[in-house]
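User: Okay, second chain of the day. Same drill as before: sequence in, structure tokens out.
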Amino acid sequence: MDDCHHIVVVIPLPYRRNGDFWGRDAGLLVRGFRELGLRATLVTLSNQEPLGEKEGYEKEGLVVAGLSNLESSDWWKTLSPDGVILFGWTLSRFQKVRNAILTVTSRLAERMDTNGMRSAILNPARYFYLTWAQSMDRMEARNCTSWKTLPSGLFAALWTARSLVGLPIIGARAAKTVGDIPLVMVESPLAKRRIDRWLRFHGHEPSNVHFCPHAVDIAELPKGPATKKRPDCVIAVGRWGSFQKDFDLTWKIACRFVSERKGAEFHIVGEVPWKTPVVPRVVLHGRLGRGETGQLLAASRILFAASRYESFHLAAAEALCCGCSVVLSENVPTARWFVGEESGTLARTPAYEDLLVALKQEASLWETGARSPDAIATFWRSRLSPSVQAKSILELWS
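Assistant: Same drill. Structure tokens below.
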């Protein structure tokens, strides 16, 4: 686009230098535009602490502002953007920000960050489940036997009823907000199908909604050629204190997998929520830096995830870029997309036995030579690199 020289990416969260702002999401997208030779600026909220002298990526364009600035048309005129990408998740509280941006440029794209289940009308049972699981997370429940299951279930029932009863007002208002945004980006094909159905239900044609996956910081990830892959090596990465990641299930499958396969290793990255017994060839690494995690991914054959819910699953995307295949269930909206291109196995259900069967099937495919780490890494790097994602947005604006 000849007339698109300055791109501004906005994420309304307080800026912290140790917050990995440049390694994912908005900051990573800014880096992608810069790789294309464009001027790109990251705009964040102030955390009320002086930033001091700009460092690294900040030098090429970082603006730390207040929400009142983001809501001001005059303030946006001082930035003079040719296009703006807002990580506003289509929340109504950022409507003033959208309105201010649109007075300066019509090129506004917004990241949704969603599994697409915006209304119970799409699937009441699934909506109830997701609401319940997220409530369990907020209550810091450890597993499904916790007493917190009951209040979470009650909350989910009431929230699901609210979604259904409030369709004429609440749902219609939310759908109008999404329908009025010039370009909406969702991170999985499944989320796009759900959002399309939801918008059509409320009378909006979803021509502004597009599948745009999250970018992956491939510069920090080794490619993981076949010669470096350890046989029967599986890795799981997560915030294991979260109900979302289901450490109980991951641990059980890890122990069963190594007990049934001589020489198999199962590496678990992330702080575990409780003390576990010592199990040979199940290795707990604790929390690791991006570089160390990348080295483990490059040495592993399979990434395994037993998540109860997700919107994208960044660890799986990073694993694919390191030449790992993935084993996922449809609790991960990107699962069917990620296992395509001979890069993984989809479990029939998210239950213990089905996930274990899928993991064994994927391990067998590696043994028979049906998986190529070079082919996996090459394909997914070509799809998920920051510059590719930046270019796809420019094409949608053209």
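The CA atoms of residues 153 and 323 lie 40 Å apart.

User: Thanks, on to the next one.
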